[in-house]
Write a structure and sequence with these properties.
Number of helices of chain A: 7
Oligomer: heterodimer
Low-confidence stretches of chain A: none
Structural class of chain A: alpha/beta
CATH superfamily of the domain at 92-179 in chain A: Glutaredoxin
CATH class of the domain at 92-179 in chain A: Alpha Beta
Low-confidence stretches of chain B: none
Helix content of chain B: 25-40%
CATH topology of the domain at 92-179 in chain A: Glutaredoxin
Order of helices and strands of chain A: HHHHEHHEEEEHE
Distance between the termini of chain B: 57 Å
Chain lengths: 222, 685
């Protein structure tokens, strides 16, 4: 994780779109009066959804929307790594997991692919369309190695699969998220390995039930 | 009461205390960086680790752990020692070894505690962390590489000062204390973070590289920048006052002081009047004391007593006002006034011009009404206390006057005096709360009492006060907030016009007087007067520019003097350095002048003068006693003159916080602060 600072080049102003404002009002209304500043993280996220990153003027806009000191907004924006403080790729921002399970399953090769095809780590490509960074564990270790591209997880990646994804994004498509080798969720590759006995499912192992467990003993007759 | 054992010694404590407090109660000193009595508990430095039984078999942060009955607390067991040494080693990993060039050296908590818990050498071979420089304005110098992230400054500025300008950004190893994009801290109490900083990360910018603490002579004194009389320590080296620090006085300033109190001291070395001067051919020329006295005496002797006037300024000590009073009264002069701002009070009972609830007693008030007062500018330390009450949620605050940012929430009830009478029966929520209050307090600012119609305003406030029972059995919430350190002492002495005398405004009118004596009076318009002006004071300010004779006096750091604060609490100011050049202490100048006038005053030493003062005005003998601490009855009906009030809104007499008196106006630091505060200058410049 690199030092988190505001970008040098900042736009002059930031304004929520009308839809963004509506969503912001929805978030603010969720908190009791006087506690509006609890909505600061959702609002910053709305900013990021709108702009792709969180520019400095947006911090001031959020602070005034929530009547809170702007330094508090800055604290939060610099604390959470999910907030991008400098512009990211317009087409795709790739967050590649490099933590142990992914690393063991080949994340280093994926880094090589990104460095070769996109740009250097923590940078944006020359055309401004792609950017990538290495992140810590995103909790999809069963499908390692993985990367989060824009809003979705792309799992079970190989260098070839990643290159295909990059090409698809570059061509303006949005490839479907999930496993690149077609498995369902985190289920075992090539189908189930346990609980495969068909008798488990055909009812042949069913037994008549005696007393229901945890039911109270019958009381004296009324 | 619950009992705990501290290092084997059993001790009783109050429920709710932390382990650290209990250990302190037992006389054990617990090292700490982030914990501070007057701030919220953060528990992030981990230096206060102790061993607690029963409890987990690991050291516990005592500042954040509630003490329990039957607990056994060990503060110096081998486990505790080892744990603290570990914490210290971690703190020092990224702390630069720059003590020889650090201003905190010699008064640094980290330095002191590393003597006890530090290793003799580092085991850390990697690169140290370096932090970018920060800007926090003209007072706070930052060397953020030294910061140990205790967050005391963040908590102080957010909780006590109420101006949340400082924050801790980023995370992990990269955290940094900063203001938003290098903005100057916009609090009148900002420099207290310098005292709070346990290391050399935040140090004093004006004092940078000036001195080491062991070179300084420390004198305990009181402040005169506002009427609170905050307890201060004057640090001087040779003839120069290098810095002013707060002392703890729970009754007045707790342990904070305003930026003006702390940093106006460089004004003590500038613009000083250091020799007598006499105006010849339209120009002030240096003279000897004898020549100056002769010039003054000739004029005073030639004038008839009703053509002589004396105005005392805002920073005068009680002794010099007493001498002036004795001298000029003995000459038959009736025109003496200590109220250059035209304050309406001064007649009647003493309680009418005091802060009767006392500053500490204000904490018992459940409803506070501010009339024509902006305590943030007029008495920032008092404002912090009102904010503390507001934060506690037990006190409701209303304001009649300007709608200023006071750092706490309040009901704005109107801008001008017409709202006072209106409040009594407007059926508003606040009016009901004020009426139902058990201990209501009204704080009356100088903005309400220095207007042309202030007699009527005073009567209106008094009527409101009587209606809501501001003065009742065991409680007196009639609180006048003065802005001048000398005002209460002047009123207590009766330094007001006698029968037939002129007040300050009348004295400065054209043709009113032949001789006008100014005792450090600079905040009055002197353009109209055509009198012979004698200025006894310290700085080349407004009074000195108009003066025909200048008698150089001593500033508050250069004389022993008594000051009565807005509560009427008499406090002793002590001399830290000697007066500049040929200047003398004010009382002795007037005493010498009495010889030249043939009206020799009967005291030759300060002790004799004080005996006379105490005999004539016994209240001055009660050093450090606030008269309001035993609530006295006060007949509010006798205050002011009922009449029509003007619709003009109230304004604070303090327009520019940093430039309210001659010392502050001579100070370069204060000028810079005023420029930053008014937006003329950016902090980063």
């Amino acid at each position: 994780m690199s030092v988190r600072r505001l970008a040098k080049d900042q736009p002059a102003a930031f304004e929520f779109t009308p839809e963004g404002l509506e969503k912001a009002a929805w978030w603010i209304a969720k908190f009791p009066a006087g506690r509006q500043q609890s909505a600061v993280i959702p609002l910053l996220w709305l900013v990021q959804k709108q702009e792709g990153w969180v520019p400095e003027p947006a911090l001031r806009v959020v602070a005034s929307l929530l009547s809170m000191p702007v330094i508090r907004v800055l604290e939060i924006a610099t604390f959470y790594t999910m907030f991008q403080l400098s512009p990211v790729g317009t087409v795709a921002h790739i967050q590649l997991c490099g933590t142990t399970p992914c690393m063991l399953r080949g994340a280093n090769a994926l880094k090589g692919v990104l460095a070769a095809r996109v740009c250097a780590k923590d940078h944006t490509s020359a055309d401004g369309r792609f950017s990538w960074e290495e992140v810590e564990c995103m909790g999809a270790c069963a499908n390692a190695p993985m990367a989060a591209i824009n809003d979705y997880y792309y799992e079970d990646l190989t260098p070839e699969a990643l290159e295909a994804l990059l090409e698809a994004f570059a061509a303006g498509q949005t490839p479907g998220p999930g496993s690149a080798i077609g498995r369902q969720g985190a289920a075992p590759e090539g189908g189930a390995l346990t609980l495969t006995d068909p008798t488990l499912y055909d009812g042949s192992r069913a037994r008549p039930l005696g007393a229901l467990p945890n039911t109270p003993a019958p009381g004296p007759a009324q | 009461m619950p009992r705990a054992k501290v290092n084997g010694v059993e001790i009783e404590f109050e429920g709710g205390m932390t382990v650290l407090q209990v250990a302190e109660l037992a006389g054990e000193e617990i090292p700490r960086f982030c914990y501070h009595e007057r701030l919220s508990i953060a528990g992030n430095c981990r230096m206060c680790l102790v061993e607690v039984r029963p409890g987990p078999p690991k050291p516990q942060a005592s500042c954040a752990l509630p003490a329990a009955d039957g607990q056994e607390i060990l503060t110096n067991s081998p486990m505790v020692q080892k744990a603290r040494q570990g914490v210290m080693e971690f703190l020092l990993i990224n702390h630069p070894l720059d003590c020889p060039i650090c201003d905190q050296g010699g008064e640094c908590d980290l330095q002191d505690q590393s003597i006890g818990y530090g290793r003799d050498e580092t085991r850390y071979g990697e690169n140290k962390r370096a932090v970018e420089e920060k800007q926090m304005g003209p007072l706070i110098k930052t060397v953020m590489t030294r910061c140990i992230q205790c967050t005391r400054c963040v908590r102080f500025i957010t909780e006590v000062a109420g101006v949340p300008d400082i924050g801790l950004i980023s995370r992990g190893e990269d955290v940094e204390i900063t203001t938003y994009l290098g903005k100057a801290v916009a609090s009148e109490l900002s420099a207290n973070v310098i005292d709070l900083c346990p290391v050399g990360a935040l140090t004093s910018k004006p004092y940078a590289f000036n001195a080491r603490p062991w070179e300084l002579t420390k004198t305990q004194s009181v402040d005169v920048m506002d009427a609170l009389g905050s307890a201060i320590r004057i640090d001087a080296r040779g003839p120069a006052v290098l810095r002013i620090l707060p002392r703890t006085n729970d009754a007045v300033n707790e342990e904070w002081i305003s930026d003006k109190t702390r940093y106006a001291c460089d004004g003590l070395a500038r613009q000083r009047l250091d020799r007598p001067m006499v105006r010849q051919d339209g120009k002030l020329k240096p003279a000897t004391w004898a020549e100056a006295f002769a010039a003054v005496a000739a004029r005073i002797k030639a004038a008839s007593p009703d053509r002589i006037g004396v105005i005392a300024g805002d920073l005068q000590d009680a002794e010099s006002m007493k001498v002036a009073l004795d001298l000029f009264r003995s000459l038959g002069v009736a025109s003496l006034d200590c109220r250059q701002d035209g304050l309406t009070l001064g007649q009647g009972p003493r309680e009418s011009w005091l802060f009767n609830s006392t500053i500490e007693g204000l904490e018992q008030a459940d409803v506070i009404l501010l009339v024509g007062a902006n305590p943030r500018l007029e008495a920032p330390v008092l404002n912090a206390r009102i904010r503390k009450l507001w934060l506690a949620g037990k006190t409701r605050i209303g304001v009649i006057g300007e709608r200023a940012d006071l750092t706490y929430g309040y009901d704005h009830l109107g801008a001008g005096p017409s709202s006072i009478a209106g409040l009594r029966d407007d059926g508003s929520d606040f009016a009901a709360a004020l009426k139902a209050a058990r201990r209501p307090a009204i704080i009356i600012g100088q903005g309400a009492l220095t207007r042309p119609d202030s007699a009527a305003v005073l009567a209106a406030i008094a009527a409101l006060g009587a209606a809501v029972g501001v003065v009742r059995e065991g409680w007196n919430g009639w609180n006048v907030l003065h802005t001048a350190a000398a005002r209460v002492a002047g009123l207590d002495l009766g330094f007001i016009p006698a029968a037939g005398g002129l007040n300050a405004a009348e004295m400065t009118a054209r043709g009113a007087l032949d001789v006008l004596v100014l005792l450090g009076a600079d905040e009055i318009d002197l353009t109209g007067t055509d009198a012979f002006v004698v200025y006894l004071g310290t700085h080349g300010d407004a009074g000195a520019h108009r003066a025909d004779v200048i008698l150089p006096g001593a500033a508050y750091t250069e004389k022993n003097g008594l000051y009565a604060n807005t509560e009427g609490r008499v406090q002793r100011g002590e001399r830290a350095v000697f007066p500049k050049g040929e200047a003398k202490e004010d009382w002795s100048i007037l005493r010498a002048l009495s010889d030249h006038l043939g009206a020799r005053l009967p005291y030759d030493t300060l002790e004799q003068l004080r005996s006379a003062l105490f005999a004539d005005h016994p209240t001055f003998g009660q050093i450090d006693y606030a008269p309001g601490s035993t609530p006295a009855a006060l007949d509010l009906a006798g205050l002011g003159v009922a009449g029509a009030v003007a619709p003009t809104p109230f304004g604070s007499p303090v327009k520019v916080f940093h430039l309210t008196n001659p010392i502050a106006r001579a100070s370069v630091t204060m000028a810079e602060c005023a420029a930053v505060a008014s937006g003329l200058k950016l902090a980063a410049e």
